[in-house]
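Whether sequence alone determines local backbone shape is best considered at the level of individual chains. Part of our work consisted of pairing the sequence of a single chain with a tokenised description of its backbone. This step matters because it turns folding into a mapping between discrete strings. For completeness, the protein is quoted in full, as a sequence line and a line of structure tokens:

_____
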Amino acid sequence: MYSIRRYALNDFDNWNDFVSKSKNGTFLFHRDFMEYHSDRFEDFSLLVFDENELIAVLPANKKKNTVYSHGGLTYGGLVFSEKLKLPEVIMSFKAILEFLNQNGFEKLIIKQTPSIYHKYPSEELSYALFLAKACLIRRDSLAVIDMQQRLPFSKLRKRTVNKGKKNGYSIVEEADFESFWDKVLIPNLKKKHDADPVHTAKEIKLLQQKFPHNIKQFNVYHNDDVVAGTTVFVTDTVAHMQYISGINEYNDSGALDFLYDHLINDVFAEKHFFDFGISNEEQGRKLNSGLMFWKEGFGARTIVQDFYEVETANFSLLDSALM
């Protein structure tokens, strides 16, 4: 019923137009976002057609005999048209698995898009994965505020917010990423995790120029010095904190809490969800309880993001799924 083919350069406009109208796509699936790090991943994105109509896309890359829900993206999975219903998603997923199997791939790794990013209910793929006997291989915990049903800040968070206000910090939204990266983010990640940010300052600046309404930088200043900041990815339904970092001595005096009070109560008050991101490490098996305690103090609570591995040979299991 359905045909599958790989993404090609001449699909650029068609792909982006489809993602913009899909019921579960975000700007992360725009080809300009996906391809800023094309040198790190061998793209194997797929398009699904019902005759000549594009009905779904799969942002993906390949490595050896495995296809991955794109490794350069925070989330992924099958992106589909708002008119696509559950039986059609099941058969679309079957067609993808069969296509991969026929092309010598043994496994597909799916990194689910958390439901808070969906513009409409869009968990059909989770059901299709169940039918295909996919194995859960990782589960991340996200700290999220439902902005339409907010819980109050804890007493501790209220105290540190007030401390930040009294200490005279200022908050600036700006397009300067270098100062936050060089003075706060990179030193902190090196010290705490011996790691670098996923994006370089040059990359995030390039992406912000392409997506000025979706990528925002907020810095906290003490006099003329950047002492804390956060980089926010904004979608239709969610304000997601991509990077959060502050210099310890200024965190103790309320700099980050002062910033987050402003973001939650003023800047993104009209968003449906405020996503602090994950607080776990080691493929979801270790929880940073101190970090989670801080996020929950703002009224955040847990939702999960699942990662699945499915054998492509299991496409045949979907034949009998529909009555």
In short: The chain has a mean pLDDT of 95. The two ends are 17 Å apart (CA to CA). Residues 239 and 268 are 7 Å apart (CA to CA).
